[in-house]
Amino acid sequence: MHIEIQRKAEISLSKQIYQCIIDHIRSGLLQEGEQLPSVRELSKQLGVSLVTVVKAYNKLEKENFVESIQGRGTFVTTEMQGKVDTEQDMLSFNWQLSVQDYLPRSQFSQFHYVPEKIHLSSSMIDPGLLPNRYLEREINQMISENPKLLSQYGPIQGDEQLRFAMYEYLKGLEVPTKPENILVTSGSQQGIDLVARTFVGPGDVVVMEAPTYPGAIDVFRGRGATILTVPVDNDGMRVDILQNLCDKYKPKVIYTIPTFHNPTGAVMTLKRRKQILNIAQSIQSIIIEDDPYSEIYFDKKPPVSIKSLDEYGHVIYLKGLSKTLAPGCRIGILAASGSIFKRLLAAKSNIDLGSPLLTQKVIVPFIKSRKMKDHTKKLRTALKVRRDLVLSILSENAPSEISWIIPKGGLNLWITLPSWIDSNHLLVKVKKQELTFLPGSACYAVEHENHHLRLSYSYMNEQLLHRGITILCEILQSEISLKKEHNHPPYF
Amino acid sequence: MHIEIQRKAEISLSKQIYQCIIDHIRSGLLQEGEQLPSVRELSKQLGVSLVTVVKAYNKLEKENFVESIQGRGTFVTTEMQGKVDTEQDMLSFNWQLSVQDYLPRSQFSQFHYVPEKIHLSSSMIDPGLLPNRYLEREINQMISENPKLLSQYGPIQGDEQLRFAMYEYLKGLEVPTKPENILVTSGSQQGIDLVARTFVGPGDVVVMEAPTYPGAIDVFRGRGATILTVPVDNDGMRVDILQNLCDKYKPKVIYTIPTFHNPTGAVMTLKRRKQILNIAQSIQSIIIEDDPYSEIYFDKKPPVSIKSLDEYGHVIYLKGLSKTLAPGCRIGILAASGSIFKRLLAAKSNIDLGSPLLTQKVIVPFIKSRKMKDHTKKLRTALKVRRDLVLSILSENAPSEISWIIPKGGLNLWITLPSWIDSNHLLVKVKKQELTFLPGSACYAVEHENHHLRLSYSYMNEQLLHRGITILCEILQSEISLKKEHNHPPYF
């Protein structure tokens, strides 16, 4: 088990250990029945006092994550995973447990592919809204014209036609770049990973929004970064707080999702976009501008990208196409410049020698054609309808103790529960009714915020969406009433 | 520029700095005309004496890699890249040069995609030998039956059908595993990277063969590993030397290509396979068994995989399918077990949330059918013909000072030149005749071996192969004669 302690962090060491173990449990890296290292072992391994470890273990036990058995040790008791690793020959592999890894967290994997019927947990788009039939025709034609497509590696940087098509497409989004400054990645998750492995190492300071996209937290934590967080309000990242942090530390990387922020849906104002860039310039930091779906706006167009304001190569811009076009192709791009771009390109070669040519070629004609515009328009309309549906059900049925932010675009809705409701526990309950969401705790890099949840309204059709939100409201309603009636202790 | 010094290594610090800078130049990370840090800066950054840096710079200058200009500094002079970064706005991005990265080497990228006509530099297979037409039909059928294929993410672990098909296929290769212990990767390059990022960190000891696959060196170097090397003879890795190393250090990972070793073509004997596994068991190490093309044997079947001998989960087995089946799909698999597998799966989620579903589905029917067997048979025959052609041209035309190892399978031929010929310089010459090969130096993690080269006979048709090898022999012949006649100093 990899536990990383940051001595200069403002959180106590025992809290860090506590959080790390919870992360392991929630990431499926520590499973039901698995034994934790002994207090003595862990204190030795981390170079901390016995008391520090005992404190962390006690807190975990109090909150029912672990169970300590006299004379045997401490074991994971959580029922959150719902599945036990039943591999019979696990015993033969026991030596493996002593092999240290560099993997503190991989929470997202637990919520990405779920068996539940009403799947509100990850932001994907209903396949019925994606242009499968068009793409199908294009694939057939393309391959019959050029069957060698399957037998060739593409350039490591990505297919030239795709880079050119993306350059044109990005121009339409007011994201200026050049085909030679575009790198094709396997989804924007790989883009984040690429930047992290190239520029972030142990102890380097990375600033993230709180909350933020869990997949990015996992990646930066995996590099041993010191993560500092800045809260998000309706206008995006709180730049005043960012400024204070930057005065004190000097982050190497600032990661932001300025438009339809994931998970809150907030849109960073133009003013703040300019400020954040100014800050990065003054302290020579890299900004990662993650832009999964700025095209999907419901009212008015969002402000221009930070990248469009960038004169000196501070911004690495990431655009995923997987979600909005063809998840089966897993394509994203990264746009950057100068030596930063050059180094990212070299890193891409080390990662996988380039993304598959087939999946790149498949989407080129669509992106180049008018259809891309029509498709985006369609998504805007269809997702607005779903968002409105969710909002209306919530307004009618949600207990008054619940609040939410109205998203002006994107795929997600961020809900805040009363502080005594832990959304991880709530998830166990709603799963019994075949419903899932993303517990808010996955979206926090350092804070212990357990009373939020993210709903994605983009994947389910309206009928299932209706049912799902109604069920959620009912369960919340009943929990709150129960608490009010009996005023029972917060077992939640 | 990221320079990593290993104080416990047996190579002097100045040699390490020297090698690191050459790696940067050969990886295209330091380009013609770029300035090196000043001696003072670098000595401060690395915490070494001025003399150490001066020594390294002097050696680089003597060998014409850099040029120092009075009062201005030291600049890269090499002509190896053949291209200069002409980006005009490079100046605006000068602040980027002070951004430290974690990317010591990415040599392979320079040889992967080349404009030269006679491309003997990377081991790919002639597209004319790959089953494009079959796959084309399968794609068309599959997509028309299930257009939603494009609009879905697959499981992070990989498509179930593909994992089952690979399980059956691997059974045929005597590589026992289970579908649930298979992880689909984007080529085996990603498999190596996955293991490295999960289990290898700064200072961890990794053992590699010398020479070995450059892409693996790049990845382990990028993790800050301490790399120790073991030479390869006709029977594979020298296990006696490995044993000595393991007695002294205790490598966390042993990386090997036991069958048709890349680049030498050597096949590890069964006895050594057993020994290497015993060693790993005794010191609780992980073995990465990279198996790009054990199916491509020319005479008799190679010995069984190390994985098939593995009882306690020490072996992580990697199988690429890109080269031998469909490079355009970039599919490979990784087979492992126990907690090691579980952690690799979690890491895959952090890397890219899973490989594209489309490229996975495309190859399933082919792998499951008889065609896969026939295809492999065809490759064996066709590549044997090409190997024989190369061997016969070499026997007839190569100067007697040149030697080579006869490969009994795989795609590569390893040539040893007289020690005064540097194959990096030779490459510059042959490129003028539209020919490329892989300079042997790329295949060494720590040694300074410049008088080898790797030819891949699998990509070019017989006509171009004939021409390429003939040209190479002519150039070598003329260089050697010239040296003999004039006994001129080894400018090579």
From TrEMBL, chains A, B:
Matching InterPro entries, A to Z?
A: Aminotransferase_I/II_large, HTH_trans_reg/aminotransferase, PyrdxlP-dep_Trfase, PyrdxlP-dep_Trfase_major, PyrdxlP-dep_Trfase_small, Tscrpt_reg_HTH_GntR, WH-like_DNA-bd_sf, WH_DNA-bd_sf
* One Pfam family named in its UniProt record: Aminotran_1_2
Q: Which of UniProt's keywords are assigned here? A: Aminotransferase, DNA-binding, Pyridoxal phosphate, Transcription, Transcription regulation, Transferase
Q: What is the lineage of its organism?
A: Bacteria, Bacillati, Bacillota, Bacilli, Bacillales
UniProt-recorded Gene Ontology molecular function terms: DNA binding; DNA-binding transcription factor activity; pyridoxal phosphate binding; transaminase activity
- Assembly, per entry: Homodimer.
Please give the superkingdom of this protein's source. Bacteria
Q: Entry's PANTHER family?
A: HTH-TYPE TRANSCRIPTIONAL REGULATORY PROTEIN GABR, TRANSCRIPTIONAL REGULATORY PROTEIN
So what family is this one in?
Belongs to the class-I pyridoxal-phosphate-dependent aminotransferase family.
* Cofactors, names only: pyridoxal 5'-phosphate
Q: Where is the HTH gntR-type domain?
A: 11-79
Give yes or no: UniProt keyword Nucleotide-binding. Answer: no
Q: What is this protein called?
A: DNA-binding transcriptional MocR family regulator
